[in-house]
Amino acid sequence: MSQKTSQFTGHTASWSPTDQKTSRSGERAQSKNTRQRQKNRVASHDAPASRAPGRHGLRRQAGSAVVEFALILPLLLLLLFGIVEFSIALYDKAVITNASREAARAGVIYKVPQMTVAQITSVAQNYASNYLITFGTATPISVAVDQSAGTTTGLPLKVTVTYTYGGLALGTIINPLAGTAKNAMAISAVTTMDYE
């Protein structure tokens, strides 16, 4: 028993009737605060959606998100397909450049007998036909070989490769600005190398 009393050394053991009145008034104050909180909760449920988002406010937000997405989606798709098609056009430009380089390199190599214009042209056409992306419409490439300076060591050989890129829609957008035929864009590459 002495252990229990030692724990409560700061408390007095006396009790007075005023303590009972104080505890009742504290209970009344707590119940009044509780009633006020309940009134505030009811009032907040009746408030408009702009002040307290409830179920209706979330539906309005979801509806506006769908409308915003519907407005932005066409722009995003246009941007996406534009990036894809422009990338393919750049790829085809790289293929045409490599085709002219391969043809020029094949033509200037020291070889007996030297390659003819038809053989140099076929090197460029074979390279382009293997690597070009055409979307199903195979447009033939044109190859121009210029040996006008001669075919002896140190003289230049010029190979020009031209290709008409059709694409899906990029040609339709760019060609009115460039003044070319509908849905077509000319890509060309020129390579000059000296004979060995």
Q: What is the overall shape? A: rod-shaped
The average pLDDT is 78
Distance between the termini: 116 Å
Number of helices: 5
Number of strands: 3
Q: Strand count, sense and closure of the main sheet?
A: 3 strands, antiparallel
Strand order of the largest sheet: 1-2-3
Order of helices and strands: HHHHEEHE
| Low-confidence blocks of residues | none
Strand proportion: 5-15%
Determine Rg (CA atoms, Å). Answer: 43 Å
Helix content: 55-70%
Structural class: alpha+beta
Write the layout of secondary structure elements.
Blueprint: H1 2-7, H2 17-45, H3 55-108, H4 117-131, E1 142-146, E2 156-165, H5 170-178, E3 185-194
Antiparallel strand pairs: 1-2, 2-3
Model description:
- There is one protein chain.
- The protein is α+β, with helices and mostly antiparallel strands and 196 residues long.
- The chain has a domain at 82-194.
- 58% of the residues lie in helices and 13% in strands.
- The protein is built from five helices and three strands; from the N terminus they run ααααββαβ.
- It has helices at 2-7, 17-45, 55-108, 117-131, 170-178, and strands at 142-146, 156-165, 185-194.
- A three-stranded antiparallel beta sheet has the order 1-2-3.
- Helix 3 (55-108) packs antiparallel against helix 4 (117-131).
- The termini are far apart.
